[in-house]
């Protein structure tokens, strides 16, 4: 079996160069006040990670300001990194599957494991795949979640969402949506096709995934970005959404929307977010302090309850604190202690890590997704 993940710097730059143009349109980079570099932390992250519910206490504790450039999707993140001058960012929030590419491209620093509370983590997260290379640490996991079937509970019956086959239900024609990113969507279709490692498939199985999702195209009512995914589910435009999870529906539930995410019988995918310290960071010590802050029990509770989108957390001490201060949210997200919880789903093999394609290139999957959208 040939592994198609080429982690050379040349390949990294070639791949991200294809994405840089679209990334450049995503907005200007945060301006840094160089006279006060030691009082600023600049991060590249998914939306919400630099809002006051997350960083407010950190800013007050250290007398600093956190600035951010937000992105949507790992490909967009790679494009922004490849075109940004050295020193633009101090911290990079990366989906776990992209850490190896950041490392191969020379864009992140090696970390000292002793600086971070890995002993507080569940064993499954202490040496997370791709975060370590040759025994060296390059990224620290801070939160994760599951991707399954997101649906409107008033318009789609619970009995139908036991399988990804629901997306082909005739009653949902034009009412199925996609979160516009190829990895989660194609990964779910790969699970439906019976691939236990949905991203490690040979050419025959890759062709079968393409054919299967192409047959779904007449059902699709739209491809949505972060904001569009929220609104289309909330206003009833879309009845079932492929490629997302509780990170979307959990926010909508707070506002009373009748939506939910379930992991169907074929299993679900795990998205995982981690922090890396950028090469040539202006404030590397401040970056380290922030990772320590967000992985401490109090920071983990903030992360679990993030206003922008909730998440599961890897820290056992974080779970204990969450159950103490907000048992309702701990129960809603199934991070309960002493009874069945999300760790059992992982240990039972119902959840597979989202990865980059192993036997195809990332470019192949991205190109097919563009072809699918225009079909």
TrEMBL record:
Cellular location(s): Periplasm
Main localization category: periplasm
Cited PROSITE patterns: TAT
InterPro entries reported in the protein's UniProt record: SBP, Sperm_putr-bd, TAT_signal, TAT_signal_bac_arc
Pfam family, one: SBP_bac_8
Listed GO biological process terms: polyamine transport
Entry's Gene Ontology cellular component terms: periplasmic space
Keywords: Periplasm, Signal, Transport
An example Gene Ontology molecular-function term: polyamine binding
Family annotation (CDD domains): PBP2_PotD_PotF_like
Keyword field contains Zinc: no
Signal peptide: 1-26
Keyword Signal: yes
Protein's name in the database: ABC transporter substrate-binding protein
Organism: Pseudomonas taeanensis MS-3
